[in-house]
Specification:
- With 186 residues, this protein is an alpha/beta fold.
- It has one domain: Flavodoxin domain (Rossmann fold, 3-Layer(aba) Sandwich).
- The chain has helices at residues 19-30, 59-70, 87-95, 123-135, 163-184; strands spanning 5-11, 35-39, 73-78, 109-115, 139-140, 146-148, 155-156, 159-160.
- Strands 1, 2, 3, 4, 5 and 6 form a six-stranded parallel beta sheet that branches. Strands 7-8 form a two-stranded antiparallel sheet.
- The structure holds flavin mononucleotide.
- Flavin mononucleotide binds next to helix 1.
Length: 186
């Protein structure tokens, strides 16, 4: 049965010609028949400060939290910075992680994709992202890690092109769609 899932797409890079954003765009295109997407503007949010975690929240933070609340699941595509999660992505996830146990991220399936010009494909960042979303009680999709190595060689005219990687990633989407359906039945 076909179902239109509501997904929130997050690129961990703010760079104008980001490879991560190109991969995100390609995955959005490849899954357009099953999912509709919003994109999160994580660069617009201020640095997390617990003193400012009070009503009214900064509008950009409120918008992001509302997007996380409204979506069925999140798709994160991120680079690796210094063997870890980019600060801007960690900041966004922190804003959506409070209050603990009632946070917008709680129970949300999260499909994590990392990419890098290096052959390692951002593997270390992938595990830090996973740890962070687990801390917020979200549910990383349990699937073979989707790592895109040598991503810079797979960008043609600004668009990501690697049918094998897309096909591999689609198996993660199938698992995520199943996770969403199971959560809806609880
Ligand atoms: C501050 C910084 C740290 C980086 N650290 C890593 C790293 O640890 N591992 C890696 O594979 N690439 C690293 N890179 C290279 C990035 O993978 C590369 O710049 C990539 O294009 C960034 O993703 P984007 O194209 O989506 O912006 C680093 C880049 C920057 C700017």
């Amino acid at each position: 049965m076909s179902h239109q899932f509501r997904l929130l797409g997050i690129s961990g890079s703010l760079r104008a010609h980001s490879f991560s954003t190109a991969v995100l765009d390609a995955l959005v295109e490849a899954t357009a028949s099953r999912a509709s997407y919003e994109y999160a503007d994580i660069g617009a949010m201020p640095h997390f400060n617990q003193d400012h975690f009070a009503e009214p929240l900064p509008p950009t933070v409120q918008r992001f939290r509302d997007q996380v609340t409204a979506c069925d699941a999140l798709l994160i595509v991120s680079p690796e910075y210094n063997h870890g999660i980019p600060g801007v992505l960690k900041n966004a996830l922190d804003w959506a992680s409070r209050p603990h146990n009632q946070a917008p991220l709680k129970h949300k399936p999260v499909l994590i994709v990392t990419c890098s010009p290096a052959v390692t494909g951002g593997a270390r960042a992938q595990y830090q992202i996973r740890e962070t979303v687990v801390s917020a009680l979200a549910r990383p999709v349990v699937t073979p890690e989707i790592l895109v190595g040598q991503v810079d060689r797979k960008i043609v005219d600004g668009r990501f092109h690697d049918p094998a990687v897309i096909a591999f990633a689609l198996s993660g989407f199938v698992t995520m769609f199943g996770d969403i359906a199971r959560l809806a039945c609880r």
